[in-house]
UniProtKB/TrEMBL annotation:
<keyword id="KW-0808">Transferase</keyword>
<dbReference type="InterPro" id="IPR050398">
    <property type="entry name" value="HssS/ArlS-like"/>
</dbReference>
<keyword id="KW-0418">Kinase</keyword>
<keyword id="KW-0597">Phosphoprotein</keyword>
<dbReference type="Pfam" id="PF00672">
    <property type="entry name" value="HAMP"/>
</dbReference>
<feature type="domain" description="HAMP">
    <location>
        <begin position="219"/>
        <end position="271"/>
    </location>
</feature>
<feature type="transmembrane region" description="Helical">
    <location>
        <begin position="6"/>
        <end position="25"/>
    </location>
</feature>
<dbReference type="InterPro" id="IPR003660">
    <property type="entry name" value="HAMP_dom"/>
</dbReference>
<feature type="transmembrane region" description="Helical">
    <location>
        <begin position="283"/>
        <end position="303"/>
    </location>
</feature>
<dbReference type="GO" id="GO:0005886">
    <property type="term" value="C:plasma membrane"/>
</dbReference>
<keyword id="KW-0472">Membrane</keyword>
<dbReference type="GO" id="GO:0000155">
    <property type="term" value="F:phosphorelay sensor kinase activity"/>
</dbReference>
<keyword id="KW-1133">Transmembrane helix</keyword>
<feature type="transmembrane region" description="Helical">
    <location>
        <begin position="195"/>
        <end position="214"/>
    </location>
</feature>
<protein>
    <recommendedName>
        <fullName>histidine kinase</fullName>
        <ecNumber>2.7.13.3</ecNumber>
    </recommendedName>
</protein>
<keyword id="KW-0812">Transmembrane</keyword>
Length: 313
């Protein structure tokens, strides 16, 4: 039983952890989607004014506010602006233990980057990489008027991210553009780690409580039933002297009392029947030799007569 209980508790704990993480990610996706929809009106204004410098600063400010990388595409799959683009003249060590989130949050880096050149280089690198087809597929869904929410491995940032895409209307061309917002999952690891620790602690407490509960039930139900089984087996073999130890006043105790009462009645009946047999034997046994003495001459005479008849024949 404990194995089953442990499996159930572990399964429930793992399920709760998964549901909490999934709920948290869905809430975050909805927040990013809502923020992207709020951004669309401002982006449409800057595009109409053809103010790319202010547009880049606005995207960077939103990035700092929500902690998500923002890529802005036109209606032709072209990258118009991006927040915190890499300087292609600087090497990025993939083996660095620092996450891409910590790298991007170094605001001093932005002063060393030329935003326009960085955006062009980012677009070129994206088109030359394996992510081009994936980005194009996502943009097609957004251009069709839909939205995109998913958790994927980002080949550019080289880590798992929450990716949200929302459309915006280009006031110049009258066509739909796309806003992609990416937030690394590494920023949630600490929170989720605390959640997992809490759930694991609750699971351990549940297992300990289950151990106590099973032990208590064993003392109250299983052990008395085992003793009743032994008493019933002894009664079946003719031993009516064994009794069940009664503890408590519950249904199990009532059953034990009934079994003890049955054993006592059977023991009394057998004792009474044994005394009657002894008394009957004491009366009948002295009469047996006397009967034999009276019947023996008759038996001998009968055998003698039978023998004479057989000889004459």
């Amino acid at each position: 039983y404990m194995t089953v209980i442990v499996i159930i508790v572990v399964g429930i704990t793992a399920g709760i952890s998964y549901l909490i993480a999934d709920y948290f990610f869905r809430i975050k996706e909805q927040e990013l989607s809502q923020k992207g929809q709020e951004m669309s009106e401002t982006i449409e204004y800057f595009v109409r004014m053809n103010d790319h410098s202010t547009l880049s600063r606005y995207i960077l400010a939103v990035d700092r506010l929500v902690g998500a990388r923002i890529w802005l595409f036109d209606d032709q799959y072209g990258l118009m602006a991006a927040s915190y683009v890499f300087d292609q003249n600087q090497e990025h060590d993939n083996n660095n233990d620092e996450s891409i989130l910590d790298f991007f949050r170094d605001h001093e880096l932005n002063n060393k980057l030329r935003v326009a050149d960085g955006t062009d280089q980012l677009e070129h690198a994206m088109k030359q990489s394996d992510m081009a087809d994936k980005v194009k597929s996502i943009l097609n869904d957004i251009y069709a008027g839909g939205s995109f929410q998913s958790q994927i491995y980002h080949p550019y940032y080289k880590e798992h991210v929450i990716l949200v895409g929302v459309p915006y209307m280009n006031p110049v061309t009258g066509k739909t553009g796309a806003i992609l917002m990416t937030e690394p999952l590494s920023g949630f690891e600490r929170f989720l780690r605390n959640v997992y620790i809490y759930v694991i602690i609750v699971g351990i407490i549940a297992i300990i409580f289950s151990l106590f509960l099973v032990r208590r039930l064993s003392q109250i139900i299983i052990m008395p039933v085992e003793k009743m089984k032994d008493v019933a087996t002894a009664m079946a073999s003719g031993n009516y002297s064994k009794r069940v130890e009664i503890m408590g006043e519950d249904e199990i105790a009532e059953l034990g009392k009934a079994l003890n009462s049955l054993g006592a009645d059977l023991d009394a009946y057998v004792a009474k029947n044994g005394a009657y047999r002894k008394k009957s034997a004491g009366i009948l046994w002295p009469m047996f030799p006397m009967s034999c003495v009276h019947l023996l001459p008759l038996f001998v005479a009968t055998m003698k007569l039978s023998t004479m008849v057989w000889l004459q024949i």
